[in-house]
Fold this sequence. Notes:
Radius of gyration: 15 Å
Order of helices and strands: EHHEEH
Shape: elongated
Amino acid sequence: MPGVKxxxxxxxxxxxxxxxxxxxxxLRMHPQTVxxxxxxxxxxxxxxxxxxxxxxxxxxxxxxxxxxVEELSKLLDxx
Length: 79
């Protein structure tokens, strides 16, 4: 709906979140792995409902990408 802000439970706007599928594409991982990491607490997210699914804050994806870049740098430096 135009002009209506949809707010998540923690007060952030829903457009500040990504779906599991979006995150899996960004991180180049299988969506089931993203879901597993959410359930294990390796990725922070909000479970809206079993039907709607998880939403992951964009800053969480940025954190994961930073970790991945740092891990890659360590691997390249050690080579």
